[in-house]
Write a structure and sequence with these properties.
- The chain has helices spanning 16-34, 47-53, 59-66, 90-100, 124-127, 171-187, 202-214, 228-237, 249-262, 301-314, 318-333, 351-363, and strands spanning 3-12, 36-42, 70-75, 105-111, 131-137, 149-155, 158-164, 191-196, 222-227, 244-247, 270-274, 281-284, 336-337, 347-348.
- By secondary structure, it is of the alpha/beta class.
- 40% of the residues lie in helices and 22% in strands.
- The two termini are 25 Å apart.
- A 10-stranded mixed β-sheet has the order 2-1-3-12-11-4-5-10-8-9, sandwiched between helices. The protein has a two-stranded antiparallel ribbon with strand order 6-7.
- It binds 3-isopropylmalic acid (IPM) and magnesium ion.
- The site of magnesium ion (MG) has 2 residues, from helix 9.
Length: 364
């Protein structure tokens, strides 16, 4: 009897459906080889959910996700929904999903594949061998802190408006993401860099104190701290100094994009969002790329690699995950490239052709 898993698919908007279609084919092929059976249930999120129901995260979607073993998400958003009020924006659906499933830990690897060194915007000697894991806190900080809003007030008798967000962390919130980060670093090269703004922000001072206190439970991990501005600079100056980075929601959002671009294309990078228990959400770091949607130009590899992360971190199937990762590497070795990673001497392919090439590699 094959082991079976219920997977929720959230293709979302823009290039989402195209890259998801390729990924489902890859999962089915790997499932056959590893004796795993997947049943897929598709649900709505983001702009497509707004169009169908008026809500970027319908209750039904959250219920389906909660009832599944893992959630594979593609991307949300697009110009069409950009001017809607905040509670109706696609991004609100994504944030609601993270909060609704309590996915406080976001793992974002930024690994330079040897095949793609030339695609990086940094020099070869700087990026060759880079292998960074950004552990981003995902359900707290300024993304969720209260009060928030645009409030009417007055300044010296004149009416004004004030936009307000609140960056707040409790000790327990820092501790739980801190533990995930120390454990992650322990399984990697054992170096953890915590990023904050403790020279200015109290919330960061608490962050730094708690992370420092945790270190005694992980004697094998070497802990360092950087202010976020310096961390941004160090990332582009000497990225190889980093192994594992842990940081809050907003700083993690920014630094993970910077780390991602270093690898040549944001079209290559997967992520995993995990909670204490319950299904995780696995999604590419990139967005919905509405400018190329529906044109068969998208790079499906970040989505495919997100499925590998799902197998590894969400379903405890490391062997199947390895097969997918190997297939991606061999397909790149065979010279296939979508537009975002194309360079002289390689074979340009579209999204579907890249999928076909992956399937061919898998069955070779
Ligand atoms: C990300 C994205 C999201 C975020 C947006 C789409 C809400 O940028 O996953 O990094 O800011 O977290
Ligand atoms: Mg982001």
């Amino acid at each position: 009897m094959p082991q079976s898993f219920n997977i929720t698919l959230l293709p979302g908007d823009g290039i989402g459906p195209e890259i998801m279609a390729v990924t489902v084919e890859v999962l089915q092929a790997v499932g056959k080889q590893c004796d795993l059976q997947f049943s897929f249930t598709e649900a709505l999120i983001g702009g497509s959910a707004i169009d169908a129901t008026g809500n970027p995260l319908p209750d039904e979607t959250l219920d389906i996700c909660r009832g599944s073993d893992a959630v594979l998400l593609a991307a949300i958003g697009g110009y069409k929904w950009d001017s809607l009020p905040r509670h109706q924006r696609p991004e609100t659906g994504l944030l609601g999903l993270r909060a609704g499933l309590s996915l406080f830990a976001n793992l974002r690897p930024a690994t330079i594949l040897p095949q793609l060194v030339e695609a990086s915007s940094l020099k070869r000697e700087l990026v060759e061998g880079v292998d960074i894991m950004v552990v981003r806190e995902l359900t707290g900080g300024i993304y969720f802190g209260k009060p928030r809003g645009i409030f009417d007030g007055d300044l010296e008798g004149k009416p004004i408006k004030r936009g307000v967000n609140t960056m707040a962390y409790t000790d327990a919130e820092v501790d739980r993401i801190g533990r995930v980060a120390f454990e992650t670093a322990q399984k990697r090269q054992g170096r953890l860099c915590s990023v904050d703004k403790a020279n200015v922000l109290e919330v960061s001072q608490l962050w730094r104190d708690r992370i420092t206190a945790l270190a005694s439970d992980y004697p094998k991990v070497e802990l360092s701290h950087l202010y976020v501005d310096n961390a941004a600079m160090q990332l582009v100056r000497q990225p190889k100094q980093f192994d594992t980075i842990v940081t809050g929601n907003l700083f993690g959002d920014i630094l993970s994009d910077a780390a991602a671009m270093m690898t040549g294309s944001i079209g290559m990078l997967p992520s995993a969002s995990l909670g204490e228990n319950g299904p995780g959400v696995f999604e590419p770091v990139h967005g919905s790329a509405p400018d190329i949607a529906g044109q068969d130009k998208a790079n499906p590899l970040a989505q495919v690699l997100s499925a590998a992360m799902m197998l590894k971190y969400g379903l405890d199937q490391p062997e199947a995950a390895k097969k997918i990762e190997q297939a991606v590497l061999s397909t790149l070795d065979r010279g296939y490239r979508t537009g975002d990673i194309w360079c002289e001497g390689t074979t340009p392919v579209g999204c579907q052709e890249m999928g076909d090439a992956l399937l061919a590699t898998l069955s070779a």
